[in-house]
Every structure is written in C-alpha cells, then in structure tokens.
Amino acid sequence: MKNRVLGRTGLSVSEIGLGSEAFVNQDDAFAQELINAALKAGVNYFDLYNPEPYIRSSFGRAMQGRRDKFILQAHLCSAWIDGQYKRTRDMGEVKAAFADLMDRLDTGYIDVGMVHYVDEQKDFDEVFSGEVIQFAKEQKALGKIRHLGMSTHNPRIAMQAAKTGFIDVIMFSVNPAYDILPPSEDVNVLFEKSTYEAPDVLSSTDPERLELYSLCESQGVALTVMKPYGGGALLKAGESPFGAAMTVIQCLHYCLTRPGVASVLCGAQSMEELLQAAAYSEAPEKEKDYAGLLSGCPAHPFTDKCMYCGHCAPCTVGIDIAAVNKFADLCAAQGMVPETVREHYAALSAKAGDCIACGACEERCPFGVKITGHMERAKKLFGA
Q1: Are residues 339 and 285 in the same domain?
Q2: Exposed e or buried b for every residue in 283-306, given b needs 16+ CB within 10 A?
Q3: Beta 71-76 vs 45-48: how paired, if at all?
Q4: Is 84 exposed, middle or buried (0-12, 13-18, 19+ CB in 10 A)?
Q5: Which residues, in sequence order, are CB contacts of 244 under 8 Å at separation 6+?
Q6: Does residue 149 sit in the same domain as residue 69?
Q7: I need a surface site. Which of 65, 136, 301, 346 has the fewest CB within 10 A?
Q8: Which of 290, 310, 333 is the last residue of a domain?
Q9: Domain membership flag for residue 300
Q10: Alpha carbon distance 232, 235 (integer Å)
C-alpha cells in the first residue's frame, strides 16, 4: 500500500482508506475481522461517521495496544438518537454524541474531527459562525481533536471551508460522474440519472470543481474521497450516466489523479470488496487506465480536456506533459500562480518551453487535447 501526505497536517495516510458504511447491520466479530484485514493490507486511514454505538466500541477495541496503526477521521454532529442516525446542530446532542464517541473509542484523541455533512449555504453560515465550530475549536485546543475537517458534496461549500484557514481536511464526493455536474445543495441529484440530461451538464470537469481541486492543492488542504463508485452506479453500465461500466480500480485511479486528493475511503460490504480496493496499489497501469472508457463512452465523453492520464507520454524531449497541464490548470482555476505551484513547476526537469511541437503526444491523446497549444499556454504562464 502506498501512502500520501494528508495535506498540511503532515500525516502519512494510506491512499486507500476504509469508510464506516461497511459496518452497518453487522456485528463486532465482523468489524474486528474487517479492521484487521484492512491493517494487514496496509490501510491506516479510517472514516467513522456512522454513530451506531457498537461501531464506535468496535473501533475502540480494535485500537487497543496499537493506536499508532490508525489515523482516524471521526465526525461531529453525527448522533445516534432513539435507535436512529441523526445529523444534528443541536449543541446538547452534538456534545453528547462527541462524548459518547470519545468514551467508546477510549483513545484520548481523534486525528481529524469532521464537521459532518454541510451542503447548504445557510447551514454553512450557521455552523461556521456559531457554536458548532467553536466547540470543534475548543476540542482541538484541548487536544481531543488534532486537526479540523468538514464533509460536503457541494464544491462551493468546500471552497469556503478551505478558505477559512483552519479546515485542514475536506471529505468530498469525487468521481467522473459527479465531476461533470454543476454545484447543488441537493445531494440526491447526484444519484439521479435524469440529472445528466440537464443542459448545463458538461463533457469535462465542471469549472467550480476544478477550482476546488486547485485551491486545495495549493493551500495544502487535503481531500479525502467519499462516493468513489457513485453509490455503485459507475460499476454498472445500465446505471452509469456514461452508459459504460468502470472497474473498481479505474474509479480509484480517477480519484487519486485529482489534485489535492490524499486518500479514497472505500465502502466495503465484504472482505472481498475490501481486498479488491486494497489491491489498487499493486494493480498494473493498464488496469488502472480510465482514459479509453471516458473518452469513448456512449454518453458525456470527456473531450479536449487533459485528464492527466499519461497516454501522451513519452514526450520527445522529456516533458512530463500531464504534470505541466495539471500545474497550468491549477493556476487557471484560481486566476493566479500560487507560489507552491510555481515551485513544483520549477522542479520539473523539462519545461513547457522545451516543447518542439512535434505533435507525437497529440496523436496518442485519447481526449483530443491540443497539447502543443497547452504547452504554449504554460510557457507564457510560468515564463519558461
């Protein structure tokens, strides 16, 4: 399993993590077996949004004597009341749920404390100007939370969180289907096939999502991914908005090639599904490749937009074309050249200005990108 740095937190996390939906309607024996299998596969990053009491207790037992093996993002404002899950902003419920979480985990701290599920502007304004965020900051000051985060499906909300300066990690829904949609406060539209028939749905990544990825990459705000399979729809041709089925490995690779992404938190309803996702790190590049499918799918084929897939390589003069395009896109999305991006570009052994416009890369690009023009853009942007 390969690790990545979780943004400015400095934590080293497995690029494949485990979401907690896997534990729903299971028992402690299943939980212990799945957690142990995840650790054995190299997984060290776990999401714990689900407030079911037994799941919290199961993680507490699993961490005993080996807390250093776990990096845990757990959620505030996610409560279990009268036998039901509830997203809450009521401070009595928020504090009680957090106290229960800490008691059951019996670990003293959580690595990332996530403000749970903020998709609407009104909710963001209330949370970030009210008692919820103050409580989160207080727990960080007490050492019970090491780093602050927030989960959302809305890129506009995610960008606002990233710009606060104190949100270090954003749990965000990432996959090629969601990436072509404009922002919405209604998470339910992400799962409706009719949504993809709307006139403002693109055949490339929506600009506001590009801006979010760029902002997080340049500011060191880590993205941890939920919904990498689109609720399973992307794995079935009949349910996918593209009219073609992706594989688990392709979905994971798409997520991990987005700027700012540190770890993909997979749902796993069985040991087999966990091991299938964990096998990503050892999968051959051909198995990871999503370019052919996304460029030639029956509906919404991605065109004339670099997807950083690497099919353009090798460059005649040694330019890492995907990296150059990624850095240029990061700057274009923000309307400026962040210093961190400038430094990363400067470290490249060959620059856009070295392009001899031979066109060999364009012949290989499955997305029809006019690469020589992109190199000219990058040369003007970075001055070399």
Answers
A1: no
A2: beeeebbbbebbbebeebbbeeeb
A3: parallel
A4: exposed
A5: 237, 293, 297, 298
A6: yes
A7: 65
A8: 290
A9: no
A10: 6
**Which burial class, exposed, middle or buried, applies to 163 when counting CB atoms under 10 A from its CB (0-12, 13-18, 19+)?**
exposed
C-beta separation of 133 from 124 below 8 A: no
Is the omega angle on the peptide bond into residue 241 within 30 degrees of 0, that is, cis? no
Q: What is the CATH number of the domain that holds 216?
A: 3.20.20.100
pTM of the model: 0.90
Overall domain count for the chain: 2
> pLDDT tens digits, the chain, 384 residues: what are they?
999 999 999 999 999 999 988 888 889 999 999 999 999 999 999 999 977 899 999 999 999 999 999 999 999 999 999 999 999 999 999 999 999 999 999 999 999 999 999 999 999 999 999 999 999 999 999 999 999 999 999 999 999 999 999 999 999 999 999 999 999 998 888 877 788 888 777 777 899 999 999 999 999 999 999 999 998 999 999 989 899 999 999 999 999 999 999 999 998 888 999 999 999 999 999 999 999 888 888 888 887 788 888 889 999 999 999 999 989 988 888 888 988 889 989 999 999 999 999 999 999 998 889 999 999 999 999 999
**What is the domain range of residue 371?**
321-382
